[in-house]
Amino acid sequence: MIFVGKAKAVAEWGQLRRVVVRRPGIEALFGLLEPFSALYERVFSLERAVREHDDLVKTLRRDFGVNVEYLDEIIMEAAGRSHDVYEELAQWTTQALQFTGYGAGRARRHFLENLPLLERDVLLQILVLAPSINFVKRKGTRSIMPFTTLRVPLTNLFFMRDQQAVGDRGIILSRMAKPQRRRETELTSFAWRAIGEKPVAAVRTGTFEGGDFLPCGSFALIGTGDRTSPAAVREILTQGVGYPEVAVVHQPRHPLLRTNDPMVNMHLDTYLNFPGEGLAVGYPDMLSSARTDVYRKAEEGKYHLSRRTRLSHYLTGQGFTIIPITTLEQMCYATNFLTIRDRNIVVPDVASNAEKVLANLKRAEDANPWKYHDLFTQASMDYSELRSSGTFFPNKPLARDHGVKAEKIRLSNITGAFGGAHCLTATLERA
User: Fold this and answer.
1) CATH class name, domain 16-74+155-430
2) pLDDT band at 3 (very low <50, low <70, confident <90, very high)
3) Residue 257 to residue 265: CA distance in whole angstroms
4) What are phi and psi of 44, to 5 degrees?
């Protein structure tokens, strides 16, 4: 049963009520064939990644009573209830599937004739995979060879955070930065409309991804850089949010890299997150170097630049205590946790991620020692210290002193696609 309600999330630490997820499917297999172009960090076990995703969903439902819905089920159930929704889904499917070569016209006619016989989940798979079938005639009766090409399958669709953000006014539809992900918002926006969730804004110029948005009660943070552009931020400030204050954070370069690698901290939530009111978890070197422009909302409703500062100064000025993490922990998705309620989080098992992250970083260093040597050296030192002290996040004295309770989830495979518990969940409603 699909729960329908008003999408809203004023602060990251508000009690989590409703999230939408998508189980990794066959599309991820094609991402594993060439991880770099699929925006993955490394090769991983897809079978184990699916189990990890299932465990995350079970934890949210069983242990915390969160209403978790699957994107595919939302679309299929809506198409089953509404003829108009089904017709739109079928129309998109016919546009996504291409036929070329010998007898392409006949094949398309047969497909359209058989379309009503195809199950709704098949239609969805066609949308996700975007296949193109080229027919080559050979000698012999019905000797027609179908060569199937997938035109940029949506290998990252299971990272449900990024296709939208949800703030104090509702859903803000993203415009994804990478061409590989651009079609994802077609599916997610279709799902929101199908269940009556009308977005308050949709980014049309520039690019914006949900991992760059963190609601914080009396203010919101929006990260800019590789994935989110200033033009998109201007759109969001015009119609997407109503916070008294919005701080725009410029993506910092990793202090241990000699040239930039934006994937190391592609989104704001890869180096900062909030486990509770007045409490932040972050990587200090990035927080202290990230330039931050603070916009205040005036009486006429428009936002105006009020001052410029650094992110760490801004947070402490807002009364936040910062729990610092190491270089290695940042790379192991320590900040990519999902806050369930004030001081209760579900966090990737950072310690279990560490060896795979280090092995991947060593390969990067071998390929380009000038760029990655300092980063690999520091991460290796962090590993030795954290392992001997047993203080991998969330096992930090400061976190314990501030009452942070954490449920660790093993996500050592699915994080290979560059994301953790926060990235995997589209938060639609917080108390």
Assistant:
1) alpha beta
2) very low
3) 12
4) -150, 170
* Distances, alpha carbon 377 to alpha carbons 256, 351, 353, 388, in Å: 10, 18, 17, 17
- In this structure, are strands 426-430 and 16-21 parallel, antiparallel, or unpaired? antiparallel
Per-residue pLDDT for 5 more than 70?
no
CA 415 to chain centre: 11
- Up-side HSE of residue 308: CA atoms within 13 Å toward CB? 4
Q: What pLDDT digit, counting tens, does each position of 164-217 carry?
A: 999 999 999 999 999 999 999 999 999 998 888 999 999 999 999 999 999 999
Cβ partners under 8 Å of residue 116, min gap 6: none
Intervals of CATH 3.75.10.10 along the chain: 16-74+155-430
**SS3 state at 205:** coil
Which pair of tokens denotes residue 312? 């760490």
Which residue carries 């991460």 as its tokens? Answer: 379
Tell me: pLDDT of 333 over 80: yes
Q: Distance (Å, rounded) from C-alpha 11 to C-alpha 420?
A: 19
Residue 319 CA to its chain's centroid (Å): 28
Candidates 30, 73, 20, 125; CA nearest to 417 is 30
User: Which of 122, 123, 98, 116 lies closest to 108, judged by CA?
Assistant: 98
> Residue 80, SS3?
helix
* Predicted TM-score of the model (pTM): 0.94
Mind listing the pLDDT tens digit for each residue in 230-274?
999 999 999 999 999 999 999 999 999 999 898 999 999 999 999
pLDDT, position 207: 98
Distance of alpha carbon 270 from alpha carbon 346, whole angstroms: 15
12: left (phi over 0), alpha (psi -120 to 50) or beta: alpha
Dihedral (Cα; 202, 127, 412, 383), 10-degree rounding: -50
Q: What is the mean pLDDT of the chain?
A: 95
**222 secondary structure, DSSP code:** E
